[in-house]
Amino acid sequence: MGGILATGLADVTSDLGALESRGWWAVVVTYEGKVTCARFDRVGPGAHPGGRWVAPGEWDTSLDEAAYVRGVQRIRDAIAEGIVYQANLCRVMSAPMGRGADMAGLGLRLSERHPAPYAMTLRVPGLEVASASPELYLARDGDVVESRPIKGTGRTEDDLLPKDRAENVMIVDLVRNDVGRVAEAGSVTVPELCAVERHPGLVHLVSTVRARTAPGKGWPELLEATFPPGSVTGAPKSSALDLLDELEPVPRGPYCGAIGWVDADSRRGALAVGIRTFWAEEGLLRFGTGAGITWGSEPAREWRETELKAARLLEVAAGDGGAGQDLAERGAARS
After folding, report:
1. Which of 12, 82, 226, 257 is most buried, judging by how many CB atoms fall within 10 Å of its CB?
2. Which range is the signal sequence, renumbered to this chain (predicted)?
3. For residue 33, what are the contacts with CB-CB under 8 A and spacing of at least 6?
4. Helix (H/G/I), strand (E/B), else coil: 14
């Protein structure tokens, strides 16, 4: 992660309180709340480990285009009824793992061909993840915490619509409220609102929320107050979670959860939102993609946004070197 190589696995726990103890921890929290904290003894600068990577088989998706479009319309109906203002509808794609494939090999390919500010490759017993996340869920430096939610995606800045800015502002309000539950009164600020960030193959609108934690509030309290990340759920969060549980047929797993590191000794850390993320499960390589739905959403356009977000990452995993290839041509739109 970020030029840091951690080896010498010393401990694995599901207790978030361990992040307030000692040592350097890799952290994965699934969208459903399963916690993995892995402490390593040897941590320092290092090159990404190599590994054999074999392209996966053909991709299936938990929601095909017709089902996804119906889901978008259901969310728009819920907005009209006043149940939610916004919800992030996601689908999980799966393909058979290539025989002899090593997740470290995929992580290395991602680091070389799709660099991302919060990229991470993790391999511990029972969990293998390769992420190229561009989105900061929570960073902590002592008592100062920061979140940088992403909402609004296009191939270029000209593709961004008023709907994208409205969506971003709604989620910023949600994140401010979440962080405010564990922050000193009056310390929550928004230093940057709807800034344009460029990433491989697309652009995003990104905002920054910053605060100072109240005394006695650490990682367990921060996650309890803010998880799952607001940018991948919706607003109001509780209503959006209920609606998404109705519409999404499979668990999201590490996708849309939290992926990152914590140095308990220095009270520093950074957890990314688990987007642009692959993980291995039951002989399958899985990958999630989604889009934020508002009243202004056009269902077919939202489906295309999920394809745009996935396309370059699946090309890296396939090893074909293509760019801009429509996912339907790869069979990824089949249920």
Report:
1. 257
2. none
3. 227
4. coil
CA 144 vs CA 211, 222, 230: distances in Å: 6, 12, 19
H or E stretch including 113?
Answer: helix 103-113
| pLDDT tens, residue by residue, 12-48 | 999 999 999 999 999 999 999 999 999 999 999 999 9
Q: Are strands 150-154 and 144-148 parallel, antiparallel or unpaired?
A: unpaired
- Give the up-direction half-sphere exposure of residue 71: CA atoms within 13 A in the CB hemisphere: 27
At 1 the three-state DSSP class reads coil
In sequence order, what DSSP letters do the residues of 163-207 get, joined into one string? HHHHHHHHHHHHHHHHHHTTBPTT--EEEEEEEEEEETTEEEEEE
CB 41 within 8 A of CB 313: no
CA distance 121 to 236: 32
Q: Is the pTM of this model over 0.85?
A: yes
Question: What's 2's DSSP letter?
Answer: T
Per-residue b or e along 215-245, where b marks 16 or more CB atoms closer than 10 Å to that residue's CB: eebbbbbbbeebbbbbbbbbbbbebbbebbe
The ranges of the chain with pLDDT < 50 are 320-335
User: What whole-number distance in Å separates Cα of residue 291 and Cα of residue 304?
Assistant: 9
Q: Which DSSP letter does residue 157 get?
A: G
Q: Which two tokens stand for residue 307?
A: 């394809």
N residues, the chain: 335
Instruction: Return the active site residues.
Output: 135, 151
Q: Cis bond leading into 134, ω under 30°?
A: no
